[in-house]
């Protein structure tokens, strides 16, 4: 019997690999002769780097870079192992690792000057190591600069009408007159960028980066207007210099306009994060011949069907007609939608009422106990 275990992390308690290991150990008590294939996965958000590195036998690179407010931060990215269809010449970068909102206290947030420069430094480091395929996860940023800081770190110069380099930050883009790419990193044209993006916002306007995501990054109403105009000007200048006009493309407004930046200057291709991850870890190939697939995440609810990890795993397994069981830290409103989508059963792991801190602290034994009970019922059903 072959059982594939492909969960996301249980946030704040267990990594995706730890979840897979607990489920495998519990099932092995009842099915000692079964083959267990552990495939930690994610949906392109937080934890994607660690999950993909664990799933492919890759490794983590640690690097100090420029944080969103200009001070150094300790960031990291992953290089995939050979056990991936993308191969071991692929890096996976979460922009939040360098330019994340979590680096900036609420009282210090200022999207007029915050920058994606550190994300560009991670990309540059990967290119210097010979990487020629990069998976870039958007989201969780403190920035609203359209990816300007990223391309500045990669050697492109953003100049005002006197030929002076602009400072970093979204507000400075209002003075942009020229984009000088003569010193761009030489490997950029050789690198393919797959961009994990799960929003469809355009760059500007009432659904744009500034209006929708700016306030959570500290933008006042006046700042939103200022930043929106600056991003529109950025797009105008880029178009006038022969770059593509990506401002209205779905996802251009993601992560403070980072979607626009990667499409315009890096020729990046935006796709749902869960689809990129499933391809990168070779999930379809690993499910081939399986008798059961087990997936899960910290919470399964009505949002799970909209591109979360369990839904991505379910889609892949359904293509091969393999049954899927979902295990979650807890079940929320709408969790039954996963059953309507074809999941065989869903379970939570909390055995009794408890506060959140206790539930997180006991996640490992609770998961093992729940998985063991599921395995026992599965074995009973197979004997019938």
From TrEMBL:
<comment type="similarity">
    <text>Belongs to the glycerate kinase type-1 family.</text>
</comment>
<dbReference type="InterPro" id="IPR018193">
    <property type="entry name" value="Glyc_kinase_flavodox-like_fold"/>
</dbReference>
<keyword id="KW-0808">Transferase</keyword>
<dbReference type="Pfam" id="PF02595">
    <property type="entry name" value="Gly_kinase"/>
</dbReference>
<keyword id="KW-0418">Kinase</keyword>
<dbReference type="InterPro" id="IPR036129">
    <property type="entry name" value="Glycerate_kinase_sf"/>
</dbReference>
<dbReference type="InterPro" id="IPR004381">
    <property type="entry name" value="Glycerate_kinase"/>
</dbReference>
<protein>
    <submittedName>
        <fullName>Glycerate kinase</fullName>
    </submittedName>
</protein>
<dbReference type="InterPro" id="IPR018197">
    <property type="entry name" value="Glycerate_kinase_RE-like"/>
</dbReference>
<dbReference type="GO" id="GO:0016301">
    <property type="term" value="F:kinase activity"/>
</dbReference>
């Amino acid at each position: 019997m072959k059982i594939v275990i492909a969960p996301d992390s249980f946030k704040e308690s267990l990594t995706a690999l730890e979840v897979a290991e607990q489920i495998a150990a519990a099932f092995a008590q009842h099915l000692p002769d079964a083959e267990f294939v552990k495939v930690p996965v994610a949906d392109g958000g937080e934890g994607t780097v660690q999950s993909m590195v664990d799933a492919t036998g890759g490794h983590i690179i640690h690097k100090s870079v420029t944080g969103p407010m200009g001070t150094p931060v300790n960031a990291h990215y992953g290089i995939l192992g050979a056990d991936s269809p993308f191969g071991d010449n692929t890096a996976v970068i979460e922009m939040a690792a360098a330019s994340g909102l979590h680096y900036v206290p609420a009282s210090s947030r200022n999207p007029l000057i915050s920058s994606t420069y550190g994300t560009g430094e991670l990309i540059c480091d990967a290119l210097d190591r010979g990487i020629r395929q990069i998976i870039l996860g958007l989201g969780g940023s403190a920035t609203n600069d359209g990816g300007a800081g990223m391309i500045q770190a990669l050697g492109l110069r953003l100049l005002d009408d006197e030929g002076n380099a602009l400072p970093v930050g979204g507000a400075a883009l209002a003075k942009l007159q020229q984009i000088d790419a003569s010193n761009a990193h030489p490997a950029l044209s050789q690198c393919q960028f797959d961009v994990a993006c799960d929003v469809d916002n355009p760059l500007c306007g009432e659904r744009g980066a500034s209006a929708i995501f700016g306030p959570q990054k500290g933008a006042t109403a006046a700042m939103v207007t200022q930043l929106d105009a600056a991003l529109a000007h950025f797009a105008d200048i880029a178009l006038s210099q022969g770059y593509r006009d990506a401002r209205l493309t779905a996802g251009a407004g993601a992560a403070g306009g980072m979607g626009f930046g990667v499409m315009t200057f890096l020729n990046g291709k935006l796709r749902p994060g869960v689809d990129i991850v499933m391809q990168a870890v070779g999930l379809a190939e690993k499910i081939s011949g399986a008798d059961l697939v087990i997936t899960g995440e910290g919470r399964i609810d009505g949002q799970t069907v909209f591109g979360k990890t369990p839904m991505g795993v379910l889609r892949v397994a359904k293509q091969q007609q393999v049954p899927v069981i979902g295990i979650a830290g807890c079940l929320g409103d709408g969790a039954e939608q996963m059953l309507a989508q074809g999941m065989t059963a869903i379970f939570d792991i909390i055995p009794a009422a408890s506060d959140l801190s206790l539930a997180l602290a006991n996640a490992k034994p609770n998961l093992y106990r729940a998985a063991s009970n599921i395995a026992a019922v599965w074995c009973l059903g197979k004997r019938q």
